[in-house]
Design goal:
single chain; 257 residues; mainly alpha; two-stranded antiparallel sheet; 10 helices; 2% strand
Amino acid sequence: MAPEHPRYRPLFDGDAEAPRSETFPYRPDVDTEIHARSRAFAYRPGLRLGILLNRLQARSLVAHVTGHPRYASLGAFFLSHLLACRDPIAPGPEVGAALGEPIRRAGTSARIHYRQLWKLFDLEVRDVDIRYAYAHEGYRSDDASGNPMAVGYVGAYWNAYFDGSATIDELVAHGLYEDQAKRRPALAGLVTPSGLDRKYRHLEERYAVDRAFFAAMDAAGQWIPIPYPKSLHDVHHREGFPASHAAQHDAVCAALR
């Protein structure tokens, strides 16, 4: 049974303070105010499942990338492009050889195209993104400018799957950063990872019923914030990209070079 399985138990183990209702585990009302207790994750099982699956997917991707034969030579290059660094590591001959095709760019940026980035490790977008069924036509899109929920670019930013707390790219980036920090001393200590506890602690009434879930999910995976277009801020309900995030991002990008 799912409630007894250690992988899925965090989805069912509600905090003792979470009041039950006739609709539990679903929301007792449709209040849209961000501080509303009913907006707590405890009452949104679909959101909880998506967050869990995104972290499990990120862990699988990190294991695949770090175990790939090209990782030793292209790991830092990959991370600098995944993080959307303004001045990423330039592609050398090995990148072109691995792709077997001309290098494409992410819009007008210096970064290589998102599809080619994952191709370096023999993966496709549909191997990374979990928003659709594997064969869904949505994975063919490269343009998300007219649909903030679609696959593709918004400007030079790839609109990766966003689970309501972080994108798959942000979760993978942190996993790869941790590995690279072991190999490159200059990277160590540059990141204060973002997590559900850190992001939602200020919403006190909601936080009170979500603490157990947040702890379990943060143990499964935290993330490095990646800059995103302002047009996605409200529609994705994001936390913003304050100066602290920008400084951290710049420091990691510089140390990767």
